[in-house]
Amino acid sequence: MGVTREIYCATCATVAPFEPCSGDGDDSPEWACTRCGEAIVLAPLTLVGTPSRRARQVPPGRPDAAAA
Ligand SMILES: [Zn+2]
User: Cα of 62 to ligand 1 centre, how many Å?
Assistant: First the structure.
């Protein structure tokens, strides 16, 4: 208890306090809206805005890049 985050809830159409679902505290990847109960999954901060370099992903429609 006590750990909440202000996150935009699409169901409430406003920013609402969310609680961690799984009891992992602030590290929980899953959060639930305390107003409507809608659960969302937050990506770990390490993945936000950081392109993955482990796997080279080829956008659809560009078969030429797959051979490079
Ligand atoms: Zn909500």
Answer: 40
Strands of 14-20's sheet in order across: 5-9, 14-20, 30-33, 39-41
- pLDDT at position 7 is 93
Residue 61 C-alpha to ligand 1 middle, in angstroms? Answer: 38
| pTM more than 0.85 | no
Picking from 62, 67, 57, 5, the residue whose alpha carbon sits closest to that of residue 34 is 5
CA of 24 to the centre of ligand 1 (A): 20
CA of 64 relative to ligand 1 center, distance in Å: 44
For the segment 20-44, what is each residue's pLDDT rounded down to a tens digit?
Answer: 987 778 888 899 999 999 999 887 6
Domain-wise residue ranges, the chain: 1-43
